[in-house]
């Protein structure tokens, strides 16, 4: 599952930033996962709980992972209709044209994280 390597990258990214800001630990990580991003939130959480037990410097059992789901939204460039597509390439349900652009739903990123100066949460 590629969520394992994605989570590893997220933790590395956050840890490097936390180190540069002289934080002692990370309290929370907020991640945005789009419905069409090919990332499974369940698998991401599973990967996160694995890393929580690895004795990392900034991430431990008390660190929380918040997954913010981003809905898939497509807009038809012909009639401007906005709808929820099942796939990246979608047919407009209103005018049947394949001129739709994806407005959101492909995002996968760290929205923010919360660091702490204290060792105990
Ligand atoms: Zn349309």
Automatic annotation (TrEMBL):
Biological processes, Gene Ontology terms: protein maturation
Keyword Zinc belongs to the record: yes
Residues annotated to bind Zn(2+): 76, 79, 92, 95
Keywords: Metal-binding, Nickel, Zinc
Residues that coordinate or bind Ni(2+): 2
Gene Ontology molecular function: any one: zinc ion binding
InterPro entries referenced in this protein's UniProt entry, alphabetically: HypA/HybF
Function: Involved in the maturation of [NiFe] hydrogenases. Required for nickel insertion into the metal center of the hydrogenase.
Alphabetical list of HAMAP family matching this protein: HypA_HybF
Similarity comment: Belongs to the HypA/HybF family.
Annotated protein name in UniProt: Hydrogenase maturation factor HypA
Gene that this sequence comes from: hypA
């Amino acid at each position: 599952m590629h969520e394992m390597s994605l989570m590893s990258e997220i933790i590395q990214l956050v840890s490097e930033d936390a180190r540069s800001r002289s934080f002692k630990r990370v309290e929370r990580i907020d991640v945005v996962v789009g419905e069409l991003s090919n990332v499974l939130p369940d698998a991401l959480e599973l990967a996160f709980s694995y890393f929580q037990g690895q004795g990392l410097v900034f991430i431990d059992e008390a660190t929380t992972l918040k997954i913010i789901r981003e809905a898939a939204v497509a807009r038809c460039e012909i009639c401007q209709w906005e709808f929820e597509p099942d796939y990246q390439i979608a047919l407009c349900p209103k005018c049947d044209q394949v001129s739709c652009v994806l407005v959101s739903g492909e995002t996968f990123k760290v929205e923010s994280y919360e660091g702490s100066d204290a060792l105990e949460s």
